[in-house]
Amino acid sequence: MHANLVPQLVNTQPPPPLLLTQRTVATATDVRDAVLRTAARLNLPLVWLPDAVSACTFHLPEPPVKHNPWVDQLLGASRMFRDRLAAMEGLSQEHLQLLWQHAIGYIAEALLDGLAKVKRCNLEGRAGMSVDLQTLSRGLQAAAPAGVVVHLRVVDTYIKVWCG
Q1: Which CA distances in Å does 9 have to 3, 19, 23, 119?
Q2: Domain range spanning residue 134?
Q3: Would you list the DSSP string of 69-103?
Q4: Domain presence at residue 138
Q5: Is the pTM value of this prediction over 0.90?
Q6: Would residue 8 count as lying in a domain?
Q7: CATH, residue 69
Q8: Count of domains observed in the chain
Q9: Would you place residue 25 in the very low, low, confident or very high pLDDT band (cuts 50, 70, 90)?
Q10: Hey, how many other C-beta atoms are within 10 angstroms of the C-beta on 87?
Q11: Cβ atoms of 116 and 55 closer than 8 Å
């Protein structure tokens, strides 16, 4: 019985100051990401995007050769986002890249919301969605700072599966 009590009585926790430091360091990254995610959402308002995407017709008689107008609107908003970030003093390159990564994730969420509202789609419409996405990806890559890779794979996968 004595052998069973000794391990329970021995304090295996680090001293309180060290424990506090470990927990603070672990949560600091989460807090930083939450702040940067919120900053990206506030500086890139996209409440209009899901409705603009879902308002487009994706039941087409033939594949389109040009992207939909919302792509140009979104690229304009991303250039404004770039300019706003450039005007902010004290942003490190790391924070700038993280802000862009969060903004790209936010764009992907809004696109998925809009595509989920589309009622009818055929193969030609799916080709139109792909044209929109490719044009958007190229434009975002041009607007984003060096080192930021635009990944909209989840949207591309949704398009391929939805009308597949």
Answers
A1: 11, 18, 23, 64
A2: 14-162
A3: HHHHHHHHHHHHHHHHHHHSTT--HHHHHHHHHHH
A4: yes
A5: no
A6: no
A7: 1.20.58
A8: 1
A9: confident
A10: 8
A11: no
